[in-house]
Amino acid sequence: MKINQVEELVGITKKNIRFYEDQGLVTPNRNLENGYRDYSLEDVKVLNQIKLLRRLEVPIEEIRRLQTKEISLDVCLHEQIREFSKRQKDMDILSQLCQEIIDSCDELEDMDVEKYLDDMKRLERGGVSFMDINKVDVKKAKRGPKIAAVAFIIFMIAMIAVMVLGKMSDPETPMFFIIFMIALFVVAIIGVCLALSQRLKEIDGGEQNEANKY
């Protein structure tokens, strides 16, 4: 069967399916006549296994080890249980810390910040993990530029299509003018892609890190 059919059956995107292929987790046969991937019911079964394990947050490498029998399903899932238990314990401790702050003060100005930061450092030394909120902020900061860039690129592509259709409907339009306008649109698209790339780099390693110093 084709990848579109597999996508519908399994409920994961073609991009994810190809990623799992690149990782060697699923290896569909190739149609000898056209070279296209030919997925079997066994491939669908494997992809469903991967889908379940990923939803249980099993890392890709662990899935690979499961498939090659380096570890058993029992060992793999018990490791996940330990990870979830630790995470739940961390959340309980953080909830207790929040409640302690609520009980000790009513306003932000009354909070003994140094005490609670010291408490958090002590908890970290004891093995408690805190979410890296900076990663969450970075992800949110990237969303706006990406949406704006995609919208602009779609608009430019639409303009190129309009120019091509205009030439087809009016052959007398100078070809030089059409090529010149399309070239301008292409340059604009390239410029936006470069600007987006630079902006994402700034968010990843520039302004966010600078903000963390203060």
UniProtKB/TrEMBL annotation:
This is MerR family transcriptional regulator. It comes from Pseudobutyrivibrio xylanivorans. Keywords: DNA-binding, Membrane, Transcription, Transcription regulation, Transmembrane, Transmembrane helix. InterPro entries: DNA-bd_dom_put_sf, MerR-type_HTH_dom, MerR_fam. One of its GO terms (molecular function) is DNA-binding transcription factor activity. Residues 1-69 form the HTH merR-type domain. SMART domains: HTH_MERR (SM00422). It comes from the Bacteria. The chain crosses the membrane at residues 147-169, 175-196.
